[in-house]
Structures are given as C-alpha cells and as structure tokens.
Write a structure and sequence with these properties.
single chain, Rossmann fold, eight-stranded mixed sheet, 12 helices, 8 strands, globular
Length: 293
C-alpha cells in the first residue's frame, strides 16, 4: 500500500496488483467503504487473468485525505434537503462526485496511466459514470456495478436497508464489528455470511475508523443530481452489473443505467445482493475480463 498526491489538496492511498504492462483496471469503491472491500483475493484473481488492477481509498475514507475542516451535521443536512433548502445543503458539502472522479483521474496520472478500464461499485459506480461522462477519452470501458443514475425514482433502497445505512455505527471496536451484521439485510440471501461481514468490519476498523467522512460522501452523492441526460449521450463501452437480491440499491437502478447508455450490456446476477460473494467471483471476473479485453 502506498499514498500518493493526486492534486494539491488530495492524497490517495492505493494498491496495485499484476503487471503494469497489462491493461489497467481501476476499481472504485462505494459509500463509506475502504479499498479493502475490493477483496485482495478478488483483485489477484483479476490480475491473474492479465489485468493491472488498482484499488484505492476515496477521499474522506481509509487512509486518504480527510476534509476535517468541513464537519457535517447529518440531521441538519437531511432536513435542508428534505425541505428543499438547496442553498443551505450545498453550502454544507465541500465537494461533489465530479471532484471524486477527478481524484481518480489524478491517481491514474500519477501512476503514468493515460487510459483505464474503470469499474465502480455502488457510489463507486456513480463516480465511475462521472469519470466516463467528464473525460471519456481517458476511460477505455465503464463497468457500473450495483449502482444507479442519480434519479430518485430508480434504485431506491428498501426501508429496512435504508434504516441500517443511516443508523450510526458504534465507536467501540467490538460493538462496531457486531453491528456490521446488520448489513446482511442487503447481502445475498444465498451467500450472505456474517463471518465475512465481521472480518471486513474488523479489518476496516483497525485500519481507519473514520465515521465523519460518510456525511460528506453522502452529500456529494445527493447534491450531484441526476446523470440521466448525460448518460443518454455516453459513447464509452459500458457493462452494467446488478444483483437481483440487492435491497440497498434496487435492481431498477442498474436496469435504468443500461437503458440509458447506448449499447450498454446488462448482467443481472441471481443470488447477488449489495455485495460480491466469493462464490460469484469467477463469474464476475469472467464478465470483467470479457468486457475489458
């Protein structure tokens, strides 16, 4: 793992797998999740198939730059958004998804990568879409996984999943790890495994427990708005992957993304929720290799 400056304001923690001479694949993680959520074994499996794999921590997460000078009161932010007080909401959040996309491009530039295959999961899918829309000349292919378009009508969470997402996580290590099992509400019904969820929670907590960043990331998602009109004009080869068990971002989010992007391929995966169970890695890696070939 290394940390590299990607702009005057932001440094990103990253790790790479495979031969830098192979086609580069940038893995972009989602809301509040560190790059550890792209499991090392998954990255190595993809690298063993001839891809140069790069994973990283988004800003405000893991070991990357924290925007501590901009504290966000989530209650006040949600109240401002709910009441339609957009100026107040906008003033609370110091960045948008396009800034997070620029971070990712800055990482590629710092690593000497001019163009890459970009794979994003959940909020990472939104960042990946934004990358393809803002600088399509630098994106060889786009893969949007378990994500959506920014339109309120699509990809809505179930009430149970939304309640878990917004419930504050305990500050104590053991309590934090135990509470992570709540996330099984959006996991694969067939393959969801409490031990796997707890293992990631423990590793994430020990590496970088930083709950303050999630409010700013959430604000960036909400305030970036819909990408629907822009996605209709996107000409980057696109694969959309979505689990049929996903209760955090409903499969309609993936379906809508594929409907909007001209020529997009849609892979709806039975027995996958808002997770990537190890049992499905061979199928997912096959799909990524075929798309990035």
């Amino acid at each position: 793992m290394s940390i590299i400056d990607v702009s005057p304001e932001v440094s990103l923690a990253y790790e790479s797998f495979g031969d830098p001479g192979d086609p580069p694949v940038l893995l972009v993680m989602g809301f509040g999740a560190q790059m550890l959520a792209w499991h090392e074994d998954f990255c190595r499996m993809l690298a063993d198939r001839g891809r140069y794999v790069i994973r990283f921590d988004n800003r405000d997460c893991g070991l990357s730059t924290k925007f501590e000078d901009h504290p966000v009161d989530m209650g006040e932010f949600i109240a401002a958004v709910s009441s339609g007080d957009l100026p107040t909401a906008l003033a609370m959040i110091p960045y948008r998804l396009v800034d997070m996309a620029d971070d990712a491009f800055g990482l590629l530039t710092a690593l000497g990568v001019d163009r890459a295959h970009v794979v994003g999961a959940s909020m990472g899918g939104m960042i990946a879409q934004t990358m393809a829309l803002s600088r399509p000349e630098r994106v060889l292919t786009l893969t949007s996984m378990m994500s959506s378009t920014g339109e309120e009508a699509y990809g809505r969470p179930s009430p149970e999943a939304q309640a878990v997402l917004f419930r504050p996580k305990p500050a104590g290590r053991e309590e934090y790890i135990a509470a992570s099992e709540r996330e099984l509400v959006w996991a694969s019904r067939r393959y969801g495994d409490a031990a796997v969820v707890r293992e990631l929670a423990a590793a994430s907590y020990d590496r970088a427990f930083y709950p303050a960043g999630v409010g700013r990331q959430l604000g960036a998602m909400i305030l970036s708005g819909s990408r629907a009109d822009a996605l209709r004009e996107l000409r980057v080869p696109t694969l959309v992957i979505h689990g049929l068990d996903d209760r955090l971002i409903d499969p309609s989010g993936g379906q809508r993304t594929a409907d909007l992007v001209p020529g997009a391929d849609l892979l709806l995966v039975p027995d996958m929720g808002h997770d990537r169970p190890r049992e499905l890695w061979p199928m997912l890696v096959d799909a990524l290799v075929a798309h990035t070939g």
